[in-house]
Amino acid sequence: MMFSKIHLQNFRNYENEMIQFFPGTNILIGDNGQGKTNIIEGIYYLLTGKSYRVHREQELLRWNQSEFHLYGEFLINQHKVSLESHYKDKKKMVKINQVSCQRLSDFVGTINVIFFSPDDLVMIKGGPAERRRFLDLHIAQMRPGHVAILNAYNKAIHQKNALLKSFSERNYKYSQIQIWNNQIVELGRKIILNRFDLTKRLQDAAEPIYANLSSNKEKLQIVYNSLGKRSVEEAINEFPELMNDKLEQEIERQMILIGPHRDDLQILLNNRPGRLYASQGQQRSLVLSLKLAELELIRQEKGEYPLLLLDDVLSELDRFRRDYLTRFIESSSIQTLITMTNADKHLELGTLYIVEQGHIRRDR
Ligand SMILES: Nc1ncnc2c1ncn2[C@@H]1O[C@H](COP(=O)(O)OP(=O)(O)OP(=O)(O)O)[C@@H](O)[C@H]1O
Ligand SMILES: [Mg+2]
């Protein structure tokens, strides 16, 4: 797969800009506030239907405009594939090869993408929701059905919560809660299985990478913890019983207290939580290892590497980790888009673009 072209119209600070990309490394250089992150965001949005920065499309619109349009071209097995995303009057429209597509989820996963920025440190520093999101985003790219399961699960816990809020005053019956519990268990088990499975495969891929990054001195380990259990069998088998045990407490506190929406992925360094004990540099190595492991997993499953988007990452890494990452990219010939400011030019190889006030021109 090769990403060959993007056309941005009224997206963020781009009025009407077309850029051609090449295999290998594509470097976008520019001062602060010129539009480097905005291109990366546009590409990510085109491929996933979501921005990683904001929840509302409204903020992606160029100021005082009412519609934006993104158009991308890809080469898949020598065939040109086009993808369009059009936002107008608060509605999203997606086209693949000029044909309207009802749901982007039908497309997500055709062209895989991995995005990496300094904000990814929240995977370590942030709460469990960040780590669940990391797992779910990866699973969604590999198994498109995962998003539908997550949506249905969230709807079920929302309904159960609503029931719990007025349970005593309205004289609801236990059997009404049981209906939701059954759904939550059925959908929740699928989510739990997917997340355990991914954790194991990520662990296998990330452990040797981290060992390399730390010159075999330190050990990364990731452990998925579901319903307070570390074993997938226990979590799956005991889910209904654990849920029943919580019922009285749930009615009393008027909220759902157990389920995979409260699970956590522990990221451990030498058997201790990275969040509490790892240094800044070690935390960056943990995230870098997990991101590179993600790339490997996609290659194993899809037979080729995904498109890699690196926003501002190199300036955050020390020389050793930077060299490790650039060697990885160059030796595997992953198509990569990297942004950096003039101040931290590191890469010698690749196609170079200058980004200036919402305009981009090729320089090398
Ligand atoms: N909706 C929008 N419409 C128009 N301009 C916008 C919009 N959203 C952001 N901008 C502007 O786009 C400019 C470029 O932002 P961007 O985040 O891409 O910069 P950058 O080149 O990545 O800078 P840095 O090196 O600081 O990360 C900013 O000046 C910002 O004010
Ligand atoms: Mg930026």
Automatic annotation (TrEMBL):
<dbReference type="GO" id="GO:0000731">
    <property type="term" value="P:DNA synthesis involved in DNA repair"/>
</dbReference>
<keyword id="KW-0234">DNA repair</keyword>
<dbReference type="InterPro" id="IPR027417">
    <property type="entry name" value="P-loop_NTPase"/>
</dbReference>
<feature type="binding site">
    <location>
        <begin position="30"/>
        <end position="37"/>
    </location>
    <ligand>
        <name>ATP</name>
    </ligand>
</feature>
<comment type="similarity">
    <text>Belongs to the RecF family.</text>
</comment>
<dbReference type="InterPro" id="IPR001238">
    <property type="entry name" value="DNA-binding_RecF"/>
</dbReference>
<dbReference type="GO" id="GO:0006302">
    <property type="term" value="P:double-strand break repair"/>
</dbReference>
<keyword id="KW-0235">DNA replication</keyword>
<keyword id="KW-0067">ATP-binding</keyword>
<feature type="domain" description="RecF/RecN/SMC N-terminal">
    <location>
        <begin position="4"/>
        <end position="345"/>
    </location>
</feature>
<comment type="function">
    <text>The RecF protein is involved in DNA metabolism; it is required for DNA replication and normal SOS inducibility. RecF binds preferentially to single-stranded, linear DNA. It also seems to bind ATP.</text>
</comment>
<dbReference type="InterPro" id="IPR003395">
    <property type="entry name" value="RecF/RecN/SMC_N"/>
</dbReference>
<dbReference type="GO" id="GO:0005524">
    <property type="term" value="F:ATP binding"/>
</dbReference>
<dbReference type="GO" id="GO:0005737">
    <property type="term" value="C:cytoplasm"/>
</dbReference>
<dbReference type="Pfam" id="PF02463">
    <property type="entry name" value="SMC_N"/>
</dbReference>
<dbReference type="GO" id="GO:0009432">
    <property type="term" value="P:SOS response"/>
</dbReference>
<keyword id="KW-0547">Nucleotide-binding</keyword>
<keyword id="KW-0227">DNA damage</keyword>
<dbReference type="InterPro" id="IPR042174">
    <property type="entry name" value="RecF_2"/>
</dbReference>
<dbReference type="GO" id="GO:0006260">
    <property type="term" value="P:DNA replication"/>
</dbReference>
<dbReference type="InterPro" id="IPR018078">
    <property type="entry name" value="DNA-binding_RecF_CS"/>
</dbReference>
<protein>
    <recommendedName>
        <fullName>DNA replication and repair protein RecF</fullName>
    </recommendedName>
</protein>
<keyword id="KW-0742">SOS response</keyword>
<keyword id="KW-0238">DNA-binding</keyword>
<dbReference type="GO" id="GO:0003697">
    <property type="term" value="F:single-stranded DNA binding"/>
</dbReference>
<keyword id="KW-0963">Cytoplasm</keyword>
